[in-house]
Design a protein that fits this description.
Elements (H helix, E strand, L loop, with lengths): L2 E4 L1 H15 L3 H20 L5 E2 L8 E6 L2 E9 L2 E9 L9
Amino acid sequence: MVTISWTDEAQFWLKDIHDYIADGSLSIAKKVVREIYQKVQILQTFPRAGYIYHDIQDEEVRILLYGHYRIAYLIKSEKEIDILGIFHGSLNIERYL
């Protein structure tokens, strides 16, 4: 099984998503955050489930999709993954990765 770690940056993005949605509905914000977290758990069993992010060649950075969001993650080893950030699909993630 793979160990998944959330970077400070990823935690910041997730909180930002929560806070933005919570302005309209706290229950929906909690649901979205919970479902993003659940989506990430698939990486424990299938670490290469996301597609390869081609703009970074020295490291294996992949993108896992959840609704309008892209979950960027780094495969550090066969047993270790870092969640780098959660980005809305309309956002240019090249600025952050």
